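Lab notebook page, bench 4
Experiment: in silico fold of construct C2
Operator: M.H.
Input chain length: 253 residues
Purpose: comparison with the prior construct
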Amino acid sequence: MRINFSLLLALLLAPLLPLPFAATAQAGRVTVAFPNGLALAMSPLRDAFQSKTGNGMTPLAAATGLIYAKITLGTPFDVFLADDSETPKRAIAAGFAVEGTEFTYALGKIVLFSADPKLVNGAETLKAGAFHKLAVADPKIGPYGTAPLEVMKKLGVYEALAPKLVVGKSLTEAYQSVDYRQVELGFVALNQVVDRKDGSQWLVPQEDYAPIPMDAVLLTPGKDNEAAKAFMDFLKSDEAVKIIHSYGFGTMS
């Protein structure tokens, strides 16, 4: 694979874009870096956190891998919300995060989705195999890529469907290929389609694939920031859990 180092360097040095929230006077402020898939949920989480604690929050969205690269370059984020559990552990091991502060704030869920309102009818759709192409994320990128393979193997259809798989470089690419009708259906994250009223979808039972934990961790720049500690506590609250659930994620509680 040929790597465009100029593009990679530009991505690493480019600023992460904050979500458009109005600035107000707060007792303290926390900078939270989080994955793109959490963007819709972050607005109500931010509002609830500010209302409850009086602290402000600067939310910055990007891919988990890019956030971690920024952290290693010294970007002073206070809290890191990842879309996996391994990257926060790596941050702790490398000295970029505070040991003992990590916890699972959400669980990812996968859905078999099609823009065709009549195509998806539960597991039977996979067993029948009456389609030409099935989109999945690259298993190399993490659990959102490996989970669909687990589901197909459990249903006993993997070998039959393997020739029909269209592997996306990312979860977003897999979703877009279905949304743009380049393929008939695909495995995507529930949070990507939670508000869609069109098409057809099947929420895959959790017992059909290994859990997809999404972990939070307090970063070294935030270790003495009381607002950062307050946000970590807030994420565990019933109010935060309710918001997270409403945007297509599970939680441990």
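Observations: The chain has two domains: 5-107+212-246, 110-203. The longest strand covers residues 29-35.
Next step: discuss at group meeting.
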